[in-house]
Amino acid sequence: QPLHVDELTAGLLRLHAERMQVVAREQHTRDRFTELHPEVPVTAVAALPGDVHDLDGLRAIGDRLATGSAPAPAGAA
């Protein structure tokens, strides 16, 4: 049985609200850490599309840290 548009919309709004709560908690954690440890340098990099669980993922994070940007996709000119 297909979802009614209102049910789908409500579900998406709940998902968005949950994600925004996670973002707020993560920001609070970062703010508290930098407040307690101002001597520790902190930076941010763009997220990868999936979990980092292998050397290729760690290399991609390292590239982003070193260059400040994401590397070109494989095969790009």
Question: How would you describe this structure to a colleague?
Answer:
The chain contains 2 helices and no strands. The protein is flat, with a radius of gyration of 18 Å. It has 77 residues and is mainly α.
Task: Kindly list the characteristics that best describe this protein.
77 residues; mainly alpha; 2 domains; 2 helices; flat
Describe the biggest sheet?
none
Structural class of the helix and strand makeup?
Answer: mainly alpha
General shape: flat
> Taking all residues together, what is the mean pLDDT?
88
Distance from N terminus to C terminus (CA atoms, Å) equals 47 Å
- Helix content estimate: 55-70%
Rg (CA only) = 18 Å
Instruction: Please give the number of β-strands.
Output: 0
Low-confidence stretches: none
- Strand and helix order: HH
Q: What is the overall number of helices?
A: 2
User: What number of structural domains do the residues give?
Assistant: 2
Strand content: under 5%
Can you summarize this structure?
The protein has helices at 5-36, 55-67.
Please give the structural blueprint.
Elements (H helix, E strand, L loop, with lengths): L4 H32 L18 H13 L10
